[in-house]
Amino acid sequence: MMPSLIRRRRERPGLRLWPVGLVLASAFVLAVLVAAAVFAAGWDLLGARELRPERRLDSKTLFDLVKLSFGVVAGAGALVALVVAYRRQRVDEDGALREATRLHTERFTTAVSQLGSESAAVRLGGVHALAGLADDAPTALLRQTCIDVLSAYLRLPYTAEADLPADDMAARHTYLALREVRHTVIRLIRDRTAIGPEETHVSWRGHDFDFTGVVFDGGDFSDAEFVGGTVHFTGAVFADGRVDFSGVRFSGVDFSGAQFSGGGVDFVNAVFADGQVDFSGARFSGARVNFVDARFSGGTVSFSFARFSGGTVDFSGAAFSDGTVDFTRAAFDTEVHFTDAEFSGGTVHFTGAEFSGGTVDYTAAEFSTSGTVSFAAAHFRGGLVDLSSAMGRAPDDLLPPQGRPLPPGLRVPPQWRSPTP
Predict the structure, then answer these.
(1) pTM, whole model, 2 decimals?
(2) What is the CATH number of domain 211-421?
(3) Domain boundaries, given as residue ranges, for the chain
(4) How does pLDDT run across 138-166, given as a tens digit for each residue?
């Protein structure tokens, strides 16, 4: 392509069309090539070897040549009309998109200005307006912009209820109004990412959500599906209330460095499948976090360097199958339950984990032969690690050499300590 043509296309925003002369010339050349190919194929199929020369043309042959000439001219005209009609259609579509984008931008500006209002009611209107704009967005990029603004609103500085000044009713009223707006944002995101029998909204699944550093004091994400895009809860603080991730399906989500310091966080029946799910460096210091009946299958789930120092973390009934679940160098100093958990297939690492206090309970947990569970270089410094009623084979590198005592606080089934016949 000529440099001047490339430069003109770069300078022209929006719809990019080649010059009409170049398009028509290309169309004619393509038509001639197609006609030649069809003629050659017919010639070959008929087995013709040469043309019979005609010394004189009769009136019928002359008339056929005239009709052929008019047919060629008509075909050329039809080709020109087709090219022009196609370009006009493209221009009309681009014009409609530009108009839709202009209207979207005007509504977007109004909605964003509402989010900055002092009135909670006006902010609520702005939140709903942005959600509606995302639903009506003419392109996925404009929808993502609306989602980014809603996510950014949650990332704004926020004081949890526990940190409010005592006996300051005005501050409490302001807090309650702001909390209502924030919980509405979460609910709207949930409604558009959840899978239900009747989806009444445009799906936002597959888009990106950035909740980095957000302070959560409640909110309902239940049954949402975060797949296809990137989802970040990096450094998020779960400080109070109940945050519900029950039934959520994650395929790639980042909770690294998150703090679970109060309230309750439910991952009951959540599915962590494929992708990278990262809880590395997370701090479980006071909240009750439930992974009851969660499913960890495929992909990688990392709790490496996580610290379980307060509250309760419950993996009861969780199934670890396929993929990798990594508790490498995690520190356990509170109540963590793996009651009835099933370790079948895949790999679960407790490599270098430190058990220094509290109770880690594996009551009726099942360790099958189809997967690998490793406690290599784990440290048992205090508290209770109870595998006394666990079933299946002993995890790798858990037991000391035959004849040596178990580390303090570690309990295992008697059959795991019996010599192999």
Answers:
(1) 0.76
(2) 2.160.20
(3) 19-45+66-200, 211-421
(4) 888 889 999 999 999 999 988 877 777 77
